Each structure stands twice: as structure tokens, then as C-alpha cells.
Amino acid sequence: MSPTEGKLKRSPGRPKQETDGTPMRETILNTASRLFMELGYEPVSLKMIAGRAGVTKASVYYYFSNKAELFATAVIEMFVRIRMRTKAILDADGDLKERLIRLARVKLSASHTDFESMMREAEPSLSEIQLQGIRQAEHGLHGALDEAFRAAMVRGELAEGDSMLLAHAFSALLMLGNRERLGDRKPTAEELSSELVELFLNGAARH
After folding, report:
1. Is the residue at 130 inside a domain?
2. What is the DSSP letter of 177?
3. What is the CATH number of the domain that holds 107?
4. Could you tell me if residue 3 is inside a domain?
5. Does residue 9 sit within a domain?
6. With a threshold of 0.90, does the pTM exceed it?
7. DSSP symbol at 162
8. Contact (CB, 8 A) for 178 and 110
């Protein structure tokens, strides 16, 4: 069962597509994803999403019964998109370090809140099915990293080890991008990407 099941009955009359040809549901979801990732769960309202998307609040309710349903759907579809983008970067040419830096730069260049903090805010409003859907989608993202790290072990780019643990460790390192400053420093996304990948691959010990 998907997180969008159990909706309230919709009134007849499907909203029109936007003038640029983008389906309205996609516009609403993309806008919701950006707002939730920028601001967290609590500060975002359906009215805010509708206003930023340039649609009516009634149009939002046509597709989503409430904020929790919109949040769950937006986050799940966001993870699917991120997994596809992640896999494309990791499957591209270049050695592992170059591809990880490229991936980190994309991640750190986007404005985002701490995902686990956002989930703690949202959890009381979400059903068990919605929570499971989000965690499964998140696991799919870690799965893309896991596949890349296992392949790197086969090629000898990484030492043999737990590739899924490495996937979670790399994701955790990228969460440092949520910080505006690191002590007295305010590194750019490009600088921080290189430094975090270097730390991930070589550690802090002197070699």
C-alpha cells in the first residue's frame, strides 16, 4: 500500500496543467520537496506550498488530502530522483575519488535541513505505512552507494569491508554540509566536498 492510499474523496474537476506544460502534481511535489528540505516539516504549510508553486490551495487538496500525505509522497519521490542522480554520477567515468567529489558537490550545493531532525518533527503526523515508505526510499539511496563501494572493492580502489556501513558513513559525513561554519571557517561547497571525500577515503591518520 502506498502512502497516498486512504485519501479523502476528491471533488470533481481535474486541475489544468500549468502553462509551461509541467503537470500540476509534479509542480506541487517539487515545490514541497524544496520547502521541506529548506525549512523542515513544521514551518511549512499547504498554503505556503500552494503560493510558492503558483497554484490554489484547492489544487493541492485535489492531489493530497493533508500535509502528512504530501510530505511523505514528496520525500519518497525526492529520494527516488536522488538515487537515480547518485547512480548516474557513480556510474560515470573517472576514479572513485573524482566521482565521490562530484556527488558531494551536488549534495552540498543544495540548501537543506537536517533530514533526521525533519523526520522527528514529521513522525507524529505520519502513518506507519508512510514512515515505512520513506525509510525504504532512503534505503534505496544507500543501496546505490553500497553498489558503488562493492564494485570499488572488487577493482581494488577500496579495502574489503562492509560496503553498506561505508554508504551510511559517507552519507553521515555529507550531513556536515548543513553547517554554515566549521569553527572559524566557512568553506565553499567545492572545498568541503574535496575535504570530506579525502577524510572518507584516507582518514585522519598520517600516512
Report:
1. yes
2. G
3. 1.10.357.10
4. no
5. no
6. no
7. -
8. no
